[in-house]
Design goal:
By secondary structure, this protein is an alpha+beta fold. The chain folds into 2 domains: 3-196, Fructose-1,6-Bisphosphatase, subunit A, domain 1 (Fructose-1,6-Bisphosphatase, Chain A, domain 1, 2-Layer Sandwich), CATH 3.30.540.10; 207-350, D-Maltodextrin-Binding Protein, domain 2, CATH 3.40.190. The protein is 31% helix and 22% strand. The chain is built from 9 helices and 15 strands. The chain has helices at 9-18, 25-47, 69-82, 148-151, 220-229, 248-258, 280-293, 324-337, 339-349, and strands at 56-60, 66-68, 88-93, 100-101, 111-119, 130-138, 160-166, 170-175, 180-186, 191-196, 207-209, 241-242, 260-264, 297-299, 319-322. An 8-stranded mixed β-sheet has the order 4-3-5-6-7-8-9-10, with helices on both faces. Strands 12-11-13-15-14 form a 5-stranded mixed β-sheet, with helices on both faces. A hairpin with a 6-residue loop joins β3 (88-93) and β4 (100-101). α1 packs antiparallel against α2 (25-47), α2 runs antiparallel to α3 (69-82) and α5 (220-229) packs antiparallel against α8. The longest helix is centred in the first third of the chain and has 23 residues, at 25-47. The chain is globular, with a radius of gyration of 20 Å. 46% of the residues are buried. Bound molecules: 6-O-phosphono-alpha-D-fructofuranose. 6-O-phosphono-alpha-D-fructofuranose binds at residues 119-120, 122, 211, 246-248, 277.
C-alpha cells in the first residue's frame, strides 16, 4: 500500500484557494461542483451503451453538429450544478446558441462559466475518449445580471480553466493560475485523487496532431511545417509521430503528458474552414491557459490566443497548442509562407465585438 499522501481534488482546490487571498469559497465550490459533474457524466458515459444514451437526438448545436444524447445530458448536468447557486452571473455552452442567463428566481454571482460539455461526442458511439472543457471568468459589468461583455473577455483574464478526459480512466486537469494539476477518478472511492502534480510539457516532444485528411486545404506554410515535423524538411532532427484521435481533449492531454502539438489550422482562404474549427471561447481559451501554465503555448498562427479580443460567442480560431518550441516554429512557417492567409484572417481576428 503506497504511503504517499492521498489528496482529493476537493482538498487540493481548498489548498489552492489559500494562494488566492481575494478568493472566496464561491470560486472553490464552483470547481468542486465541476468535479462532481464530471463524476456523474463519467458514470453515464461508461454505461451509455446499456441505458440507450448512445446516439443522436434530432437537434443541431451552434456548430451545426447533430447533438448526441450524452451532449445534452452533460450540458444539463453542468447547467444544473450552477444555475441556482448564486455563484455565476451567466454561462455559455457550445450547446446553446445564446448566452445562458441565470433564472430570475435565483441570485447571481461574480463569475462566468464557459463550457463545452462533451467535446468529441461523435466518438462516443465508437468508444473513443471524449472530454469536457470549462473555464471561468470574473464578472466586471456593473449590472446584476451577466452580459455578453462579461463572457467575451480575453483569455489573459481567466481565473480558472480545466478539462475532463473520459478515457481508459477519467481524469480531471485544472489550473487556477498556479500550475496545472491532474486527478484520476478512483471509481471505488468516487474520488478524484491527485496523480499528476504540477504538470509541465516535457522538454522533448514526441507527437504532432492534425487531421491529415485536410491536407489538400492546407496553406503552404502548414504544408511545409508538417514536412518539418515529419523530418522530411529541416536540419535532420528526429521525426515526431503522428497521433490524431479526433477528440481535442484526448489529443491535448496526450501531448501535455508526452510533449507535442495539436493543430487545427485555418484552411486556404476560399475553402471550408478559413478560421479552423475549434471555438475560442469555450475550447481554445481554456486549453491555452492550461498550456501556458504548463510551460507551453497556444497560438492562432499569428499570436497568443490568450491575447485575442473575442468578438462573438461561437467564434472559431485557428489553434496551434502544446510544446512552446513547436508552436513558435509553426508561427515562423506561417509568418514566412502564409502571407495571403494572414491577410484574409486578420479582419476576422480583429473585428469589433458583437454585444447586442
Ligand atoms: P475533424 C470534435 O468534434 C472536435 O471539435 C474536436 O474534439 C476534434 O479535435 C475535432 O473536432 C476533430 O475535427 O474535422 O478533424 O474531424
Amino acid at each position: 500500500m503506497s504511503t504517499k499522501r492521498l489528496i482529493t481534488i476537493e482538498r487540493h482546490i481548498q489548498e489552492q484557494q489559500k494562494s488566492h487571498p481575494s478568493a472566496t469559497g464561491t470560486f472553490t465550490s464552483m470547481l468542486q461542483d465541476m468535479a462532481l459533474a464530471a463524476k456523474i457524466i463519467s458514470r453515464e458515459i461508461n454505461r451509455a451503451g446499456l441505458t440507450d444514451l448512445l446516439g443522436a437526438v434530432d437537434t443541431i448545436n451552434s456548430s451545426g453538429e447533430r447533438q448526441q444524447k450524452l451532449d445534452m445530458f452533460a450540458d444539463e448536468m453542468i447547467y444544473q450544478m450552477n444555475d441556482h447557486t448564486g455563484r455565476v452571473c451567466a454561462m455559455a455552452s457550445e450547446e446553446h446558441d445564446d448566452l445562458i442567463d441565470v433564472p430570475v428566481e435565483y441570485d447571481t454571482g461574480n463569475y462566468v462559466l464557459l463550457y463545452d460539455p462533451l467535446d468529441g461526442s461523435s466518438n462516443i458511439d465508437v468508444n473513443v475518449s471524449v472530454g469536457t472543457i470549462f473555464s471561468i471568468h470574473r464578472k466586471f459589468s456593473r449590472g446584476e445580471r451577466g452580459t455578453l461583455e462579461d463572457v467575451l473577455q480575453r483569455g489573459k483574464r481567466l481565473v480558472a480553466a480545466g478539462y475532463v478526459v473520459y478515457g481508459s480512466s477519467t481524469m480531471m486537469v485544472y489550473t487556477t493560475g498556479n500550475g496545472v494539476y491532474g486527478f484520476t477518478l478512483d471509481m471505488a472511492l468516487g474520488e478524484f485523487l491527485l496523480t499528476h502534480d504540477n504538470l509541465r510539457f516535457p522538454e522533448i516532444a514526441q507527437y504532432y496532431s492534425i487531421n491529415q485528411g485536410n491536407e489538400k486545404y492546407w496553406t503552404p506554410g502548414i504544408r511545409r511545417y508538417v514536412k518539418w515535423l515529419q523530418g522530411i524538411e529541416g536540419e535532420g532532427h528526429k521525426p515526431l509521430a503522428h497521433r490524431y484521435i479526433g477528440s481535442l481533449v484526448a489529443d491535448f492531454h496526450r501531448n501535455l503528458l508526452k510533449g507535442g502539438i495539436f493543430m487545427y489550422p485555418g484552411d486556404l482562404a476560399d475553402k471550408g474552414k478559413p478560421y479552423g474549427k475549434i471555438r475560442l471561447m469555450y475550447e481554445a481559451q481554456a486549453l491555452a491557459f492550461i498550456a501556458e501554465q504548463a510551460g507551453g503555448y497556444a497560438s492562432d498562427g499569428i499570436g497568443d490566443i490568450l491575447d485575442l479580443r473575442p468578438h462573438s460567442l461561437h467564434q472559431r480560431v485557428p489553434i496551434f497548442v502544446g510544446s512552446r518550441d513547436l508552436v513558435e516554429r509553426a508561427e515562423d512557417y506561417i509568418r514566412k509562407y502564409d502571407l495571403d492567409w494572414q491577410e484574409s484572417y486578420k479582419p476576422y481576428r480583429t473585428q469589433d465585438a458583437i454585444l447586442k
